[in-house]
């Protein structure tokens, strides 16, 4: 190795021991705590060192100044956003991946094969068909969505006789997308980035979670007759606010009948299909033209690990392939390089931590964890319903519970203020961590259960903390 081998071993051992202590002690620490002012300032104002600092000293700094102040998602009473704790097998694999430090694009090195396999495993886990080359790992679902929708855009325009890679969007018919209101923001962001325009996104109403097929087809027909090009239908296999699964089978029927690309956002919820209790709700996901997954969500692969899957590899290759002469490699595999299917040229070794995380639990272990999280969500919903000062915003379908506080006698606008303030008040108390959102126009708390060691006691603690914080806020006026 280059550098000081003994120094590396010593520093690495010290770090591994420190990290193991950190992980072991997490559940006994506050879920989250603010940085002391002095430390925040010190970290912000760290001067650039002129001379190298010994590695062991760097490890000491990391262990004393950085690790004690995490986001909170390692703790079993963390219910915020969609952030799980890291799977230990993924943490150790990250060290080995960094030691190899390949660019996972092409060539006869282990990382390339492992990513092919891991992508196939992910497709297998969620029951999505997989052809070699029909997917790749990304930095997350946001990036995977851009990848998938670039494929969708190219295909829709190709059918209209327009070559977007050659001509851009100038002269192309307006491409229309259809997406339910609860679609994650990464979808409209991808669409606007791809030049499709937010004005060309139509909302698909889903009253009580049901699709009005005739209504949607009539809207598509109107757009067609108006000279636009209906291009994309979007569904969620687990919305971010409530974890609801859209009627994917009905959406797939409309997409097939209208010849429109169906994209399913499975970033949070696709792995829920492993729970036999709700598996049936996912029918139709396997028919999507593209599907995004986030192994760094429910599976707990250390960030970052997203995944884009498509039915037909060429839909991506035709959108992205561009090989400059300096990157040509004689005997490439027929399916080409990863860089021909997505946004990145130099690509990190995300597959090792994903492989380790999945393999350390196996399909059965992951399925049990997913089913357990869903069961806990139903239990939390029952606790909420039992409390007169709380109300459910929606019955949980997966492992997210959306609910509100409603202390007796509080006026509606005060209720909005209260529910808006609640998450931060709960977080500051340090015993449980929950975040908020706006659902159906109202301030709402949402608890997302992803930690394999969350128990019924943590749920009771969350309810207690929310009630207690609500009383404090109400008393303060
Ligand atoms: C349903 C859903 N879709 C997409 C995303 C975006 O994923 P990422 O943060 O990995 O880009 C999220 C993130 O929380 C999500 O919950």
Description:
With 477 residues, the chain is of the alpha/beta class. The protein has helices spanning 5-25, 37-44, 55-66, 88-100, 110-126, 141-159, 164-167, 186-193, 213-225, 248-258, 313-320, 350-386, 412-429, 456-475, and strands spanning 135-138, 175-180, 201-204, 229-236, 261-266, 290-293, 306-310, 390-394, 400-405, 435-439, 442-448. A seven-stranded mixed beta sheet has the order 1-7-6-5-4-2-3, with helices on both faces. It has a four-stranded antiparallel beta sheet with strand order 8-9-11-10. Residues 82, 140-142, 184, 186, 236, 238, 240, 265, 267-268, 294, 306 line the site of pyridoxal-5'-phosphate.
Question: What keyword list fits this structure?
Answer:
four-stranded antiparallel beta sheet, 44% helix, 11 strands, 477 residues, seven-stranded mixed beta sheet, 14 helices, binds pyridoxal-5'-phosphate, alpha/beta
In a few lines, what is going on in this structure?
The chain is α/β, with parallel strands linked by helices and 477 residues long. 44% of the residues lie in helices and 13% in strands.
Bound compounds, each kind once, are:
pyridoxal-5'-phosphate
| Number of contiguous helices | 14
**What's the arrangement of strands in the largest beta sheet?**
1-7-6-5-4-2-3
Gap between N and C termini: 63 Å
How does the overall form come out from the CA principal axes? globular
String of helices and strands: HHHHHEHHEHEHEHEEEHHEEHEEH
Poorly predicted segments:
none
- Secondary-structure content class: alpha/beta
On the 0-100 scale, what is the average pLDDT?
Answer: 97
Query: How many beta-strand segments?
Result: 11
Q: What composes the largest sheet?
A: 7 strands, mixed
What is the share of helical residues? 40-55%
